[in-house]
Amino acid sequence: MIAPLAFVIGLSMAKEAIENWHRFMQDMKVNMRKLRVHSGEGVFSLKPWMNIRVGDVVKVEKDQFFPADLLLLSSSYEDGICYVETMNLDGETNLKVKRSLESTLFLDDDSAFKDFNGTIKCEDPNPNLYTFVGNLEYERQVYPLDPSQILLRDSKLRNTGHVYGVVIFSGHDSKVMQNGTKSPSKRSTIEKQMDKIIYVLFTLLVLISLISSTGFAIKTKTQTPSLWYLQVEAHDDDARLYDPTNASLSGFYHLITALILYGYLIPISLYVSIELVKVLQAVFINQDLNMYDEETGTPAQARTSNLNEELGMVDTILSDKTGTLTCNQMDFLKCSIAGVPYGIRSSEVELAAANQMAMDLEGHVGHFVRSSGQNGQEIELEAVTASKDSSGTLIKGFSFDDNRLMNGNWVQEANPDVMLLFFRVLALCHTAIPEFNEETDSYSYEAESPDEGAFLVAAREFGFEFCRRTQSSIFVRERDPSSQEFVEREFKLLNLLDFTSKRKRMSVIVQDETGQILLLCKGADSIIFDRLSKSGRIFEEATTKHLNDYGEAGLRTLALAYKKLEESEYISWNEEFIKAKTSIGGDREAMLERVSDMMEKDLILVGATAVEDKLQQGVPQCIDKLAQAGLKIWLLTGDKMETAINIGFACSLLRQGMKQICISTNVDMLNQDSKKAVKENIELQITNAYQMIKLEKDPHAAFALIIDGKTLTYALEEDLKHQFLNLAIDCASVICCRVSPKQKAMVTRLVKEGTGKTTLAIGDGANDVGMIQEADIGVGISGVEGMQAVMASDFAIAQFRFLERLLVVHGHWCYKRIAQMICYFFYKNIAFGLTLFYFEAFTGFSGQSVYNDWYMLLFNVVLTSLPVIALGVFEQDVSSEICLQFPALYQQGPKNLFFDWYRIFGWMGNGLYCSLIVFFLNIIIFYDQAFRAGGQTADMTVLGTAMFTCVIYAVNCQIALTMSHFTWIQHFLIGFSIVAWYVFLILYGMMPPELSGNAYRIFVEALAPAPLFWLTTILVTIACNLPYLAHISFQRSFSPMDHHVIQEIKYYKKDVEDRHMWTRERSKARQETKIGFTARVDAKIRQFRQMLQKKSSVLSPRVALAATRT
Amino acid sequence: MDHKNAKKPSYSRFSQQELPAWKPILTPGWVIASFITIGALFVPIGLLAWSASDNVVEISDRYDEACVPDDFNSNAESFIQNPDTKKTCIRNLKVPKKLVAPIFVYYQLENFYQNHRRFVKSKSDKQLRNPEDENDLHSCYPEANTADNKPIVPCGLIAWSLFNDTYKLSTRGKQITIDKKGIAWKSDTKAKFGSNVYPKNFQKEGLIGGAALDESIPLSEQEDLMVWMRTAALPKFRKLYGRIETDIEAHDTIKVEIENNYNTYKFGGRKKLVLSTTTWIGGKNDFVGVAYVSVGGICLFLAINFILLYVFRPRRLGDPSYLSWNRHPIN
How far apart are CA A612 and CA A18, in angstroms? Predict the structure, then answer.
């Protein structure tokens, strides 16, 4: 009893130890990273990260991570600025500018630190990423510090040669670490439910042990004194166990005996088997070539094997955006200039939708199109040119394809002067720095945001190559459209009006070589359209239409505009601007904004751009499949709302015609009103939206909830969060933007605890660690820089699209395997364990077992464990292709069809039945009569061995009935289990009688020659399995489950013979999805159908019939 | 393999879970065929076993009450414990059908817990086999040694409580020989009980349990002991007493002279004498036949039911209309 328990615990401990060791090694890798630290006398030497202390002065080079929270002292730039990438903190990809104090600017050299001495006083460590309170005392002066001087750990130095900084918070005190949540130990739903079953079984165990010991006490008291052959009144050591004068004590001793004897009811070996099975399942996940990413060379990795089956039960996926769904690469794809759309290449979303459309038209709406003849052309409008590989080399950031604009052809278009302006806006309105690349003989750009980079690349390709920037000028090499010669033009940069998330626009004021002053502006379409002059609205209508199309195609759009300025007009404005800029005090910002506002109006629209935020490979398809599998997908991103909505469109989480519910807080409201008022306002918004959904009649109506981080702070408070959750559950998609890492974790917890369903969080950066740890399953994207997400995760995959296979194939399999395995285990142990109990009743509850000790020991170890492990590792109800073709099958997991109490008790009942059959048939057959022609009667060993043989047969045949997938391994292991029993019996019988006791030569001499033994084995085996066989036959015949039908279709190769049916079923198998491009296509088709219906009521009734069918 | 692809899993059908597999499905054809097959096999086997059991002739006679003289009726225990009372008792058994040799003579005890834990382990296999191990007594208490610490061979409660009723059979005034040889398993006589181990200090002092053993006969020839020491599984059991190698005609009367020594009166146990012939399935065992016929019958019944169900409510195999999304249409 102790040995197997120790073995189990030891095994688990060893497994945990190995996993911990790996984690330790990964931690060490980070800890051992080297960094230059001031070691005194102006000398900087390399030190590992782990030895960095608060107060150390460190020098961080370009593209290095900050090892701790630093105070920026100076940088390689003269003005002490540096660029920081905070992707790991908030998922944002644009660079942030940090600026050192003026007083520390002189520390621009290693040697400057020789005599540097200062004191920093600051707040205690806290998790707030965006605040910092403190001051620097230097040379008896006190300088206040603010967040713009703080470089946070896990962010990265970009576009800056090096910086000097002093460590403020290190290690666990750093803000990022403070943001981290304790990594919880996770257990799967099935395991938690299994615990409950164990409680049930334990109760049963205690119950029957109590029955036994009570029975024993009564028997001891009343009966044993008369059983003279037991000599209970003797005074040997054992006699006190049977002492009639102290029966209650004997009963108590017996309770312990009984607990040990019936211990077989609690399958300790189940834990060993499950651990083993899960490790093997994890190996299969790791080995899956379909989840291996060729580009980065990373295979999928199951980092813990505890949660395999949980993968099959996921209900909600919470996903990060940047790096998970998108590659963080922008591609210039389309533009609209002077009201004319350019760019013939389609976005991935359009392509995916077009493919789906084509498939559907072939499939279930095939005859609908044919019969609707003249209306066919309307559907053709949807046709999309898939010209992915038409034009030669791919340029990073530029997927534009349209000959009308390329190679200077644009001069032939209708409005060449507008076009020229369009290109100039692209080439001039930015803050990027060019870098000459010797290899490609062209410029590449270090831009603040990837869109800006894409614009510059586009401008370069159109023949407006931005090549140099000085303090006051921007140089562009323009290709003359007629001569194809390059001319370098200088534009004097007069002013630059920055982009901020509040302004949502950026402008530059430049003076060209002719002396003309121009304001060039780009910004969000709504903002620009508000600022157009009356004469500047010529293209507004056409451009708006194009912007909508682009938005629907999942593209990120900006509108471009310009204005010509008179010199005098500019000079008077500039004076005001300089005044505002040099003013000191709190209203500086407001003044600047007012002045900028004055300038950015009466603009003239030139066009719009559409940039594709490049999704990772296969993301729309994957999301579509996951949506079909009935999974809900929430997008949690640190990005701004516009970007998030764009990506929502790109991934088909949003679509045109979906009602967007935006819950937000007004900025002004925040400033003025009390917290309470804000909260009431949010509550009102939530209630209204909820009412709206409830009142919606159209079954196809879909809602999307979009909420930002600030609002979320209130919505996640105790009294509001359930209302918020209820609203969110009713929406087809939920997008949370501007959320902090902590909020991500809180949202995850809300979903997990509020709905009680399984959640999966997927992310790639350090900002996702919280939610990865909080969710039931955390998935990290591996193969990128920064390992934090992967280290916190339970599974690591290289690409988002592998999630489909991980869930729909491996999750589905593992769920079913583990569920069936556990059910079977309980069955087997009940079937076996209860026979021991029944026998007790016949031995005066004395604790004698009918089986030899060795039989019992081997039962769980060798004789019945291997087939069930094979079931747990190899079973496949349907092949992986079918899992992928019918994502709807996945719903069997979240609905928990294979591990509900009905099924569990069914199996337990089967075990009970089996134990009764095995025991009583054997007893009745063997108890008194001779069992052989030789007249010998059966003793306890013969009966026990016969009974045990029946158990072995019954449970091994049972598992053969349970399996539906037999490779040679299953055949072998089931066969082996049965053969092993006979082999053991023969070998055991050959051992000298001192060891084998009454089992000496039992099989060879007593049992094998007796026909009755064989007859009993067959009879009991069949009788045990008959009800189960009848049950599954009946169930399969009259209420088959989905996988049964699909197995049959495959078995009879119907999918090959009747392709039409197969395609139709595949498209019908979609769950009621409202997201994903399939839903988008469906919505489109519905739209057509409604249009058709209107027309057909005029045309012919036949068409109407056809249209309403399917 | 270059460095980049160093972690690439290697392809094998095993690692990709693509091993060729047999994927049987339970089609109606299979279901009906297997039920009919089982039924068709089980019913005849059952009938065979039944007829075999029917051929067995068994005579059983309960004698524990009848062999207590009337004046001890109220106190059978004192009768059996009194060494001076006359224990011999005559019973007459009618033979309903001809008993064909070999006829097996059994004694049957009821309510005797040979399977009690205290009882089962109270023996020493080592001691029974090897004279050097006569001191291997740890499992034998309280019947391990005598008052002066000499080991008892065979030790333990099982041997000590050896059954000691004896039967003498005669018919038509002629003695029927009961062959007491060959009633134990070969493995017992050959291996488990030593031919050089002789009973020692057995039933000599203290409480006297059951039969005494002849100290001049080695244990390997004490077959009654061997039979007794194979403890029975249930409190009602039968053990082989001997074998009769001559036929006994029908309607004969067998006169049995019983030496009624064994005390079952204290715990209300019953004693029976059983004469039985055997066939290939052993003794009289109607249950096996009945069970086979019943299980076979149930299978045939199920098969008929399934056939009827398929006739009246057929489901085309792989019929997609049974898929959940077609049964509960979404739209």
Answer: 44
